[in-house]
Amino acid sequence: MNRERPIGIFDSGIGGLTVVRAIQAALPAERIIYFGDTARVPYGPKSQVTIRKYASDDISILMRYQPKIIIVACNTVSALALDVVEHACGNIPVIGVLKAGAKLAVQATKNRRIGVIGTQATVSSNAYACAINSLNPEIEVVSQACPLFVPLAEEGFVDHPATKLIAREYLSEFSNAGIDTLVLGCTHYPILRRVIEETIGQGIRIIDSAEAVALRTKELMTESGELNPFRKSFAPHLLVSDLPQKFSRLYQLFMNSELPDVELVEV
Question: Which of the residues 74, 89, 130, 146 is marked catalytic?
Fold first, then answer.
């Protein structure tokens, strides 16, 4: 019965849907419970105390569904409150997108110069640089906070002139940095990936933390023998803390699929 339990995923808003999409591609038979804290997005500008409180609230909602594994699809929580989630989950495995993304970036870089973009809280924590340098201390990490990317993604401005203008402003910091790898250190950012790729230029490997965490999840569940034995695919069970109609519209835009039910829950 343990193998039929769902994978629990949470994020501050719609960004974690990039993780849902990656998990569905890698593990199509798995049930997914997703919670987006749309009432309190974005997490990035908040204090560490507040982020840790939000993480505790978020995980308490997912634990009601007895998940067999938890994915922290929020880089800000992964950087500042992963221990809060691990403590609340007990023996349930927890995967944070930050470490998975850092590992994939280290494997990808050729010249040992990696760029990281993320929320203000994630960049200020220096968590990506620490995770990358723990794997290879010779790698130089150049980080840039891109706080406006989250609200742009939440509005669905995937190809808007404002998004392109702001991307040029943020990513100009890398023009002379000599990086060959760029980590999208927030799960909202893959929603804007096309604009980011066009702005950063050719020859730079983009690391999507959603893809990295999906690979790690598949590895972990294969090793533990907890893959769902059934071949049927399931629509994710979606939970939000506010604006379910807006979430529904953005879900259809980013997932390119029919909309499952969106349940409104209190935090």
Answer: 74
